[in-house]
Write a structure and sequence with these properties.
It contains 14 helices and twelve strands. InterPro entries: BUG, Bug_dom1, TAT_signal.
């Protein structure tokens, strides 16, 4: 089966306003990080290339372009954001894997990369071997949603409702193997319920399916779930993260609402080709972390239903490895097929 590939490049270049600021930022970052290769890397005129392995306009693209702006502002270097979608995000990922390991090409990805590894898909790369995690930029909760006509008002009631009629009800997702698909399968497994999966071609159609009553329930990122929840088009029961989120504080966590230990999220992070010098990886991580913590950028992320993270490379690597283990266990125990 052939996959159409759409490519969209945009160049972000330093503006007059950032020329003076970039010298101060580079000096400050260099002081924080010590000597090493920061100054030559930051002052290079070679464009940084951020590859988003999805089509333009999606959440990964939006966050990726924000990360590109941040790197441009703080490093003063041109940044090209390239959409290279197709083949379930593997085309763009492979392009980064095959790029020189010099820090100038970065992959913008989501938790789907952990799903790929857990499912042991036949791909032309091994993400754990061929990529180096740089930093998680942002993370957000999913909301567990039901159609308003479903006669439940809590997680406990939904579990009881589903157990009373195994296999009768359906849940929607944005596609097979996506993080919302796996998050719902994990909920099914931990809650001991049997509901059927109906995959749609994207987030909007799947959310509309729940709002219209075509399916009964789903997990969905807060940014798009909350407006429909506040309008009464869907009913939100809980959030997927271990704790409540300040972005929808009225909702309990699934962990507290009847599914102990449940904890999943949507996240966006950057990785580099394996072999990229560690000091450059750490420089990029520190730059992204500093940008994500700026009040204006935090406000922007919150509007997308996300919280800033900006962690260290080792922390990001640990997050990916833990998710791979969770999804691998789920796939093995449930016999889930992701092809």
């Amino acid at each position: 089966m052939r996959h159409a590939t759409k490519r969209q490049d945009r160049l972000v270049t330093p503006t007059v306003d950032v020329r003076r600021r970039r010298v101060l930022l580079a000096a400050a970052a260099g002081a924080a990080l010590g000597a090493g290769s920061y100054a030559p890397f930051a002052r290079s005129n070679t464009p940084l290339r951020l590859v988003v392995p999805y089509e333009p306009g999606g959440s990964a693209d939006i966050v990726g372009r924000a990360a590109g702006r941040w790197l441009n502002e703080r490093l003063g270097r041109p940044v090209i954001v390239e959409n290279k979608g197709g083949a379930g995000a593997s085309l763009g990922t492979e392009a980064v894997v095959r790029s020189p390991a010099d820090g100038n090409t970065l992959l913008v990805h989501t938790g789907t990369i952990a799903v790929e590894a857990a499912a042991q898909k036949k791909l032309p790369y091994n993400a754990q071997r061929d990529l180096v995690p740089v930093a998680m930029v942002a993370e957000g909760a999913f909301a567990l949603l039901v159609n308003p006509r479903v006669p439940v008002n809590s997680v406990a009631e939904l579990i009881e409702y589903c157990k009373a009629a195994p296999g009768k009800y359906n849940y929607a997702s944005s596609g097979i193997g996506t993080s919302v698909h796996l998050s719902m399968e994990l909920f099914k497994s931990m809650a001991g319920i049997n509901v059927m999966h109906i995959p749609y071609k994207g987030g909007a159609p799947s959310l509309n399916a729940v709002a219209s009553g075509e399916t009964e329930m789903m997990m969905n990122p807060l940014a798009t779930a909350k407006p429909l929840g506040l309008d009464g088009r869907v009913r939100a029961l809980a959030v997927s993260t271990k704790s409540r989120t300040s972005l929808w504080p009225e909702l309990p966590s699934l962990d507290a609402a009847g599914v102990p230990g449940y904890d999943t999220s949507v996240w966006y992070g950057l990785s580099a080709p394996a072999g990229t010098p560690q000091d450059i990886v750490e420089e990029l991580a520190a730059t992204l972390g500093a940008s994500a913590s700026e009040p204006a950028n935090k406000t922007w992320l919150n509007a997308q239903g996300l919280e800033p993270v900006g962690d260290k490379p080792a922390e990001f690597k640990g997050k990916i490895e833990r998710e791979i283990q969770v999804w691998a266990t789920l796939i093995k125990e449930s016999g889930l097929k992701l092809e």
